[in-house]
Every structure is written in C-alpha cells, then in structure tokens.
Amino acid sequence: MIDELLKSFITLFVIMDPFGNLPILISLMKGMKEKERTKNIYRAVLVASILLFIFLFFGVYIFKFFNISINSFIIAGGIILLIVGIQYVLGLRFLKEKSIDIASVPLGTPLLTGPGVITSTIILVNEYGMLITAIAAIATLAATLIILRFSSHIYRLIGEHWSNVLSRIMGLILAAIAVEFIRKGILGALG
Fold this sequence. Notes:
The structure is a single chain. The chain has helices spanning about 1-15, 20-30, 35-65, 70-90, 105-110, 115-130, 130-150, 150-190. It is mostly helical. The protein has a single domain, classed as Growth Hormone, Chain: A, CATH 1.20.1250. Helix 3 (about 35-65) packs across helix 6, helix 4 packs antiparallel against helix 8 (about 150-190) and helix 6 (about 115-130) packs antiparallel against helix 7. The longest helix is centred in the C-terminal third of the chain and has 40 residues, at about 150-190. The mean pLDDT is about 90.
C-alpha cells in the first residue's frame, strides 16, 4: 500500500508541477499585494481540488456514459501526458494570455488540475483504487498549497534557472510515467 501511495503521489505531484509553475505564478501575480496573492493561491488550489475530486469520484461513470474502455483512456491519457512531459522538458508553454480571474484560470485549471492530472487521477483510481488515489491527491494538493504559498521565497531561493531545471526534470519523469501508461494500456487492450 505504501508503494502504491508513493507512486500515486509522485505521479500527481510531477504532473501538477508546482515548482515548474513558480515562474508563471510569479509573473501572473506581479504587482499584487501579499494579501491578494495569498487569496488567489488559496482559490487556485480550491478550484484545482474540486476538479480533481470530481474526476476522482465520477471519472469512471463518465467513461461508462461515453462507452470508453479504461484501456483506451489509459493509452489516450498516456499520449497526453507524454505531450505534457515533452512540453516541460523543452520548456514550452501554451499559456498565451492573462486572465482576469487568475485563481480559477489559468492557475486552478489548467496549470494545477489540467488534462494530465485529470487523466492520471482516473487511471490511478483504476489501478490502485479510490482510497489510495484520494490520499495521494490530498497530499499532492497540500504540498502544492505549501509550495505556492511560499512561492516568492522559494523562487528567490532557487531562482529562475533552477526552477526551470526542476520543471524539466519533472517533465522527463512525467514522460517516463506516460510511456508506462501507454504500455499498460496497449497490453490491457491486447490481453
């Protein structure tokens, strides 16, 4: 159980990538007072949490409604995660415009809980069960909240260079997790 919990946590944490999102967070909140920054961070994590838990509890039913097999979703999700991982490794960002409500969009979604987190959550529920995935999700969201809450201190400490290095390492790990998902999905579909 500890091994499954750790794998689930690492998967969700790497995809949520709070360290890699620090430069974006800092730039979006530039000029805000500390109280406003804190409020936006808490709201962003709340939005991310709500979306994550909707898919954690109802993702399987959404599959049934659309008549999608878990193996097909694992393969599709693995491909999406691979693209996100490559995006992190190469330092690409698809976010082009600022939003008025930065807490909900782009911070809460898609930066924290985007397609990668949603896909991984559903796959992890299928693989390890709802309880382990829920505990891993809570731990990931708590760690993300702490990192984002102290983002300005962390960013000052590690700097832009090391923040980018961390993001790229996480992208490489994410790409490896994605390949594993694709392999499992293909084996499940064939077997």
